[in-house]
Design goal:
globular, two-stranded antiparallel ribbon, Growth Hormone, Chain: A
Length: about 425
């Protein structure tokens, strides 16, 4: 842990970038639970819940490729600040959703919020290499993941309690304030000339040029698809967790000391997100301590993460008590966290500066596409196919084991290639 404290103390630019991530993510998880609570109040449909998650993910798929071009052509810090400011205004507009027939407005504002997030994410992924040294990349990615997970745990817990005790409005206001604070913090990051304008402004053919680079480097293409493979598995679980919390493992409603009844589903959902935060946070730190930072070990970490993700999801489908369900959630999220951090670090080590924004945009685009497909299919499986939530989880787990076998074959075939790349 000392290494991470040294990184934060000794690198001013990364410290401000990290603090911006902290406050922004804290608000995001407040937002998710508050939005889910509104949807559950309006309708208990699995498709309605799926629609909420699709509204969060599909804009990333549609707009991220263009955001990647912007991240490679313009000042990445400016893109991030503008995105934060506009998201603050958007989140405050959630307060306009008051009655059931206005649920369309909730979806529309969610789409707008994550369209702006599509501008932010590739710019931040690409800028990380410009604020840390190469030997600090794995540590910075692991700390980013730990931060994301900690904010998932803390934000979900606080967001769940705030939504249960005080209603969704408080969560939306806090979310807007965090975006404003994030913009202020990021404004203090100082970048070099190279990072401000990474490539010449040759037009939107830059977008095609990014695909050509990936086609010429199939190993980088495969690593950029690793998160998309994982999203085929964890996307549907995001929907199933709400059903598990509401119908399978709900806490009994209890009365708060102020005389208000707290919804048991909200409490269980907050517990799930807390465990998820712990898993995705500790997993990459422990795996990095075990495997180290060498390229071939990073590739091994991706494979291990994929298998833990698949097994954890299958175990969710067979768990018979809430403690076992939370254990399965922990295994699943450790795998997801390791897969995320190690694949990001590998890409940052391999991709040239001039292509970095577009490759990370492609990665996020494919991730959101497969995640959206998984989310939609999970909702349809519950509503239209007559499958129980446990049966859907088990099917996803078996599918994940199949993709894990395919990835292991890839791992064996490219291991020698990775060694040649590093030695050259």
């Amino acid at each position: 842990m000392r290494e991470y404290l040294v990184l934060l103390r000794g690198n001013r630019n990364y410290r401000y970038l990290w603090l911006g991530q902290v406050v922004s993510l804290l608000g995001d998880w407040f937002n998710l639970i508050a939005s889910a609570q509104l949807v559950m109040e309006f309708t208990s449909s699995g498709v309605a819940i799926s629609t909420l998650f699709l509204a969060r993910f599909l804009p990333l798929f549609l707009f991220t490729p263009f955001a990647g071009v912007l991240a490679d052509r313009y000042n990445r810090r400016t893109i991030m600040i503008v995105s934060d400011l506009l998201r603050a205004v958007t989140v405050l507009s959630f307060l306009l959703v008051r009655v059931t027939h206005q649920i369309w407005l909730l979806y529309l504002l969610t789409v707008l919020q994550f369209t702006l997030s599509a501008l932010f994410s590739p710019a931040r992924s690409a800028i990380l290499v410009n604020v840390v040294r190469e030997r600090e990349l794995i540590a910075a990615n692991a700390l980013d993941s730990f931060t994301w997970s900690t904010m998932l745990a803390l934000g979900s817990l606080l967001g769940g309690l705030a939504a249960a005790f005080f209603g969704a409005d408080i969560a939306f206001v806090l979310d807007a304030l965090t975006f404003l604070l994030s913009a202020w913090l990021i404004s203090h990051v100082v970048l070099g000339v190279k990072a401000k304008t990474a490539v010449s402004r040759t037009g939107w053919f830059d977008f095609i040029d990014g695909f050509r680079y990936l086609w010429r480097t199939p190993f980088v293409l495969a690593i950029s698809l690793a998160k998309a493979v994982g999203a085929l598995l964890w996307g549907g679980i995001n929907v199933l967790e709400l059903t598990f919390a509401e119908t399978v493992f709900p806490f009994d409603d209890f009365v708060w000391t102020a005389g208000r009844t707290v919804d048991g589903m909200t409490v269980t959902l907050a517990m799930i997100y807390v465990i998820s935060g712990i898993g995705t946070g500790l997993g990459p730190l422990l795996m990095r301590h075990w495997l180290g930072d060498r390229h071939v070990r990073i590739l091994l970490g991706i494979t291990i993460g994929m298998w833990m993700l698949a097994f954890g999801i299958w175990y969710i489908g067979v768990a018979v008590t809430l403690p076992l369900f939370l254990l399965a959630t922990f295994i699943r999220t450790v795998g997801a966290g390791v897969l995320w951090v190690f694949s990001s670090a590998m890409l940052q080590l391999l991709i040239p500066e001039r292509y970095r924004g577009r490759v990370f945009a492609f990665e996020l685009t494919m991730l959101t596409l497969t995640q959206s497909i998984s989310i939609l299919m999970a909702g349809v499986a519950q509503d239209r196919l007559g499958l129980s939530v446990q049966e859907v989880a088990r099917f996803i787990g078996y599918f994940g084991m199949g993709t894990g076998l395919i990835w292991m074959i890839f791992h064996v075939k490219v291991n020698a290639y990775v060694k040649r790349v590093v030695s050259s």
